[in-house]
Amino acid sequence: MNIGEIRAKYLEFFEKRGHAIIPSAPIIPENDPTTLFTGSGMQPLIPYLLGKEHPLGDRLVNSQTCFRAMDIDEVGDNRHTTFFEMLGNWSLGNYFKSKQIPWLFEFLTEVIGLDPKRLYVTVFIGDEKNGIPRDTESVALWKELFERKGIEAKEVALGSGADGYRLGMQNGRIFYYDASKNWWSRAGAPQDMPEGEPGGPDTEVFYDFGTPHDKKYGQECHPNCDCGRFLEIGNAVFMQYKKERNGSFALLPKQNVDFGGGLERIAAAKNDNPDVFATDVFEELIELLEYYSNGKSYDDSRHTRSFRIIADHIRAATFMIADGVKPSNTDRGYILRRLIRRAAQHAIALGCAQGQEKENELVRCAIIVIEKYKQWYTKLVGEEVYETISREIWQEEKQFAHTLEHGTREFGKMISDNISGEQAFMLFTTYGFPLEMTLEMAEEKGKSVDEMGFKQLMEKHKATSRAGSEQKFKGGLADTSIATTRLHTAHHLLLKALQIVLGSHVKQRGSSITSERLRIDFSHADKMKPEQIAEVERIVNEKINEALPVACSTISKSEAEKLGAQQEFGAKYPDMVSVYSVGPKGATKENPQFEKAFSIEFCGGPHVENTKELGGKFKILKEEAVASGVRRIKAILA
């Protein structure tokens, strides 16, 4: 059973049970500037899990494309991928455990055909300190389902993962774990949840491949063991509690179900092969790479890791580029650049030609990905998309070839002695020279590399980058470049123009601003008419041409509210706030003249000092609906 068949059967199974099929959201979050990528199936649905009504009802199902950058360094084993599809079904206050668990068991055993004797489950052991009981309801349901198949379902209380390595399987079928394994909330464990935060226990399903336990991971094996015998294939979260002001937990009035199952992992279980790269979506990629790698084989353990890294990274890069990401040195673009270059590095290790022609091996891999997925994901359809993906990968690979030349020269200057952590870090950050290549070349010369020193510097670098990213993405700005800054100021003009043309009910509901375009989500029920769009464009361009000063003032929140300063929906502001006002002529920071200003907004900047700096002409590219009562505009400065 291939990936496409499993995906189709899952959607059909839950559609027959009253679920509306919803499309996969892009892997680039549309309304969440706090994170770079969509990393789980439930991420785009958080507003609805927290109480917002979904326009398609309270039973939903889909297959969501996901990307997890933190797993890049894990790729190479038999089960980690950066890009994956998550099968999901949700109940928004409709059904609960008594339907979800039997449906899940039926789908896995009857529809997919997994042997129930190979399935093991985990549940929440409870939290006595916080007054949260053991999840005996889920246990009772699982016991009945297994017993119908003639399988004894013994309960075993383990607790933590460390306890699992100590206590082992004990002939169990249902295993109790603590909050570190079987509890979900955005804040983590119950004790870490703030007042009002929802959360709940989950139950996870594991497939047993029956491989021997590797004691390097722990003395005894258990479902959450990392030795590879068990693979988690599904996780149903039962969001049923809310933390109260006094620290206690109360039942939510509407209790939700959030299920996520790894599509590739379910396929691996169906194949009874723990290697997710043995599934059909990777098969042709690996065959192509074997063909161009001068006789090297995926089954040769010396090369398996390289085959896996190339296959995973090019699949992820293909979807990223289709969603509009381009290689760069910052944020999403940096992650994409790292994926392509890491794939190129391992293609070199396999002996594949690099950067020589437009349709080289990595580009051919991307074409295979497009053909495999375009039936399900229309963003991959079309000659323009094909050309864009091919061009970006090829150009990045060519640029990497030049980088390697420079890095190799610098390496040659250092190799008279062992390579320090600082030197390896400089090769990586300045010349884009991967650590793996530094290690290989040093080994050839009989020299060592201070890997620990390199990793310590990398952790410090990542922490700094994360902090910078959190700051940059505050308010929806992708970066603080001049181009992005200009569009940020244009965003303020646009919001005010929308209020003038459509009415004072218009409020900002989200934003995303890059160096290439701005995007605003705003409250308005109806599709804008062409004449309304034209009038908004006219007003914004008029204010640009008027060369109005842009002043920043720090005033009290209450004073800003009295002035009618615009606030972002849902944002919380301190007692003293930064306010940006546009106009009138003659206004300054010392004398902002708020009463005559064109627009006033709560904002942390950055902005131009005068609207004449925006340059060019403001142009609306697209106006569309994104949710009930919320419209979206994408615009540029041409």
UniProtKB/TrEMBL annotation:
SMART domains, A to Z: tRNA_SAD (SM00863)
Class of enzymatic activity (EC top level): ligase
GO cellular component, one term: cytosol
EC number of this enzyme: 6.1.1.7
Keywords, sorted A to Z: Aminoacyl-tRNA synthetase, ATP-binding, Ligase, Nucleotide-binding, Protein biosynthesis, RNA-binding, tRNA-binding
GO MF assignments: alanine-tRNA ligase activity; aminoacyl-tRNA deacylase activity; ATP binding; tRNA binding
A GO BP entry: alanyl-tRNA aminoacylation
SUPFAM superfamilies for the chain: Class II aaRS and biotin synthetases, Putative anticodon-binding domain of alanyl-tRNA synthetase (AlaRS), ThrRS/AlaRS common domain
UniProt keyword Metal-binding, yes or no: no
Record-stated family: Belongs to the class-II aminoacyl-tRNA synthetase family.
Protein name according to UniProt: alanine--tRNA ligase
